[in-house]
Amino acid sequence: MTGQNGYQYLEPRPGSAYRQLFTKGRRLRAEVLYRQTVGIEPRTPEEVAADYDLPLEMILEAIHYCEHNEPLLRQDRDRELANILADEAIHPSPKPPDAPPLT
Fold first, then answer.
1. Blockwise average pLDDT, block size 10, the chain, 103 residues
2. How much is the pLDDT for 29?
3. Cβ atoms < 10 Å from Cβ of 48
4. pLDDT of the residue at 20
C-alpha cells in the first residue's frame, strides 16, 4: 500500500526540523540510507538493507526519493550547517593551543 506521499516505506516526521522523509518505524532519514549507496565507496542497496536490517524495497524507495528531491535535501543540509555555525559562534569548541614549532 502506498502512502499519501507516494511511498510505502517513507513518511514525514512530525516535529522534526528536517523536511525530508524518514523511514517508517525508525528515526532514520531517507538521505542517510541514500548516502550509503553513493560516493567513493558506494554500497549496493542489498548491502545497505542487510546492514540496517531493513527491506530492500525501503532502500530503493529512499534512493528514488533522494534522487528526485535534491533541492529539499540541500535545504535541510544548509539549515543544519547554519545552525552548527551559529552554535559554534556562541559556544566555541575547546581547541588545544598551537604547539610550538619543532626545532
1. 80 93 94 95 97 96 96 95 90 71 60
2. 96
3. 23
4. 95
**What is the C-alpha to C-alpha distance for residues 45 and 62, in angstroms, rounded to an integer?**
10
CA atoms of 31 and 16, how far apart (whole Å):
14
Helix (H) and strand (E) counts in the chain: 4, 2
Supply φ then ψ for residue 28, to 5 degrees: -130, 120
CATH code for the domain in which residue 50 is found: 1.10.10
**What CA–CA distance (Å, rounded) separates 42 from 99?**
38
| C-alpha to C-alpha distance for 10 and 21, rounded to whole angstroms | 6
Q: Is residue 79 one of the residues assigned to a domain?
A: yes
Alpha-carbon separation of residue 77 from 31, 43, 72, 81, 84 (angstroms): 10, 22, 9, 6, 11
